[in-house]
Every structure is written in structure tokens, then in C-alpha cells.
């Protein structure tokens, strides 16, 4: 790939590091403001609860996010800032790897533009604020892309293949999507003439086999739990039957969400770049071939899937990483493309505007009374509710022999477990009698026969006393009061009961 002194100048790399430092400092400030104004998201609290009971797999995901949460909680004393800061660190390291990969595959100026395009997206802002399952996956996938390219450059280097093996293994333990990565490696060896020798290199096959072998304990866990993770994953591909207008609305929604979180102009540039590489596939350099294969097939598959069903915006996230590099190459007009300076300017302007609006909105919302608005109610009130629930627990007659149970959504149990100052083990009741979350996989109240239970039922119209399962399970159910946390026009409410002497409980078993 041809490079000019200007485009490959060390100045562009220096600018990246200065930009990264400035963004990191700014995001630390936003993070601290966010910690002060918002509680953990439901999934964050849920994964944190996983971390207190390390295992080889969990209800819906491989174990990495749970392990990470366990380590973070241990290092930071289960403080909220530890989870937020970990998200920022993972996002920052991932951006550094993206820049490094773009630098190796293109030139310094294009690598800088790639980093800026990534930074100026709502997706990246969210990735650095909320610790989700995608944070470790994106880190492993991006590092895997970099290491595979380095290994392909020097196929006899055992260290590079060993490092790639480790990353594939860690990625596989992070999210099921990593199982697709070896297919990308093989596909590149088939398509790239210069790299077909990789298919005869035992190091590559060993890296694939040993890396993917980390799925074995996950499979063994699932075998002993009725293949519950597989059953959960299958439901993601259920497609609702819709008429034409419903189908069109859902399809446009899928595309619109992707365009929004990756910013409209940048998203359009990525689509245009992918169309261009398909048309010019015979003229692509080895580097562009690698980038294109890492992006186009995966995103094309998700585009087809979006015609069939609703897809979550984070599902194709790993394929957008190389798509950003491809868009930067296309915008700058690196051979064989033509330059698109107008596109580049508007991509940066629109992206910068959207990200600025998002961050300004966070600053305004969480530094004023606007933090109580309905749209953010799910991130508010849990800390106060947890403190109030703890007061009820402290007042029970036999605290040492009393466990906590939260009803309805799994988030209620997770948030209470995190925000009650004593961080109790919180149980959940699933009325259907089937496994719907990790709480039904763990031993339930059947292990607390003879104990009392502090029961938290959400909503303004409690109906617990109408449940024969509860009234017959305890010697007596006593209403102890309620928790009311005002959140703007909404109120978070829990009715609090004390169940005396649990006499029997039917455990939930995986089918």
C-alpha cells in the first residue's frame, strides 16, 4: 500500500497519543459524574452477582464477565466506581489496539482517522461507561485480528501463534461470537494467494484447536445443566410473523439503530467502502483484503439476518471494528479508492456533534435535577432502595437466620444484592417454575428450610398474599412495610414482607 511521507509521519501517531490522553482524562471526569448520578445498569449488577460465585459458565454467557466482575469487586471492595473504571480501561485499551492494527495495515494518518471515527460514536461512548459482556469480547477480537496479522507476517514465530492461541481462548470464554474467529482465519488463508501457505502451517491449526478447546469446560457445564445456555441462545433467533408494514418497520429499525450508534455519515461511509471493496476485490492489496474479509462477510450475514428478525445492535459489533479501518481508507482515498474529503468532513462533524450532545446531556442530567426523568429511571433509585431494604433486614427478629428474596425481574435481585450495604445473597422466585435466569440455576430457598425470609415485591399493587405457593411455604407471612423512592414522575416501590419459618420449597430444575 503506497504511503507518502506526510501520511506516514510520526506526527500523526503523536497526535493519536495526545488525543487519547485528552479523551481519557475527559472520560474519567464524565465517569465520576456518572457514578455520582447513576446506579449500575441491571445487567452490570447481574454480572456482578455472577462474580461472587465463579463458575465455568452461567445461564446466558460464558464465564469471563463473571470472573472479571469477581476480580473487580475483590480489588475495589465492590464499589461502583471500580466497575465503571474497568469499562473505561477496557475501552481505552481496545482503541489503542485498533489504532495499532490500522497503523500496521495502512499508514499513520489513516490510523489516526480510524481512531477518531471510533471515538466519535455513541457506541464507543457507551462502551467506556457501561461494563457489558461486549467489552472483553471486543478487546479479545481486536487483539486477535492484530495477532493473526502479525503471525501471518512471520508464520514461523511460535510466540505470535501462542499469543493468538491465548486470545482465542479468552475470547471464547467471553462470548460465543468468538467461535467465528477461526473461520475468519481459514477464510483469509483461502482467499489471499500470498497466505495460502498458512493452511499448511500446523501452528495455525494448533492455535485454532487449542484456543477453541477453552469451550470444553463450558460445554461440560452446559451438559450438566440441561444445555441451558444453548436453549437461551436459540431464542435470540426466534422471528415474529409480521405483515409487510411490520416487517419494513422492524428492518428499518435494525438499520436505523446501527446508523445511530455508529453515527449516520460514518455508517454510510462504511457501507460505501464495503460495496467498493467488493467491486474492486481484484485490485485490493493484501492488507485491504484482510480488512475486507474481517468486516464484509460478517456484516453481510447480519444484514440478511436483519431481514428476518430483530437484531440487537451489539451483535455485529466485532465486524464493525475492521469496518472503521475500511471506512478511513475509503474516505482518504488510499489506492485503489478515490478520496472523499467531503464525506470525511461531514463524518467527523456529525459524529463529533452527536458525541458532544451525548456527553453534554450526561453532564447536564447528572449534575441537575433532570436526573430524575423517566427515561433514566432504570439507572436511579437502587442505591436508596437498597439502603431502605437493609434497614428492614436489620430490624428482623433473627437477622442471622433470615435470607433475602426479590420477586419479578432478575434485575431486582441483582440490584438489591449490590446496593444493600451488607451485599446479602439474594434469591429470586420464578413463578413459571422454569429456568429464566442464573438465579434459578443456583440453589434456591430450598437450601434455607427453617429460615425466615425478607421478601421484596415490586410494584404498587402487591399480590404475594394471593399466592398459595408462598402462603403454604411459610408458617406465616407478615407485611412489614414498603419502600418508596421518588424518581421524577415515577416512583420505585417495593412491598416488604417477612416470611416466618420456611417449611418447604420446590426447587427449579433445568429441563
Automatic annotation (TrEMBL):
Q: Which residues cross the membrane?
A: 16-35, 81-98, 110-129, 135-152, 164-191, 203-221, 259-278, 290-307, 314-334, 346-366
Q: Name one Pfam family in it.
A: PMT_2
Q: Does the keyword Methyltransferase apply?
A: no
An example GO biological process term is:
lipopolysaccharide biosynthetic process
Matching entries from InterPro entries are given as: LipidA_mod_glycosyltrf_83 (IPR050297), RgtA/B/C-like (IPR038731)
Q: Which GO terms describe its cellular component?
A: plasma membrane
Report the residue ranges that make up the Glycosyltransferase RgtA/B/C/D-like domain in this protein.
Answer: 60-221
Where does this polypeptide localize? Answer: Cell membrane
What is a GO molecular function of this protein? pentosyltransferase activity
Signal sequence segment: none
Task: Write out the entry's keywords from A to Z.
Answer: Cell membrane, Glycosyltransferase, Membrane, Transferase, Transmembrane, Transmembrane helix
This protein's membrane topology, according to the annotation, is: Multi-pass membrane protein
What is the designated name of this protein?
4-amino-4-deoxy-L-arabinose transferase-like glycosyltransferase
What is the organism of origin for this protein? Prosthecobacter vanneervenii
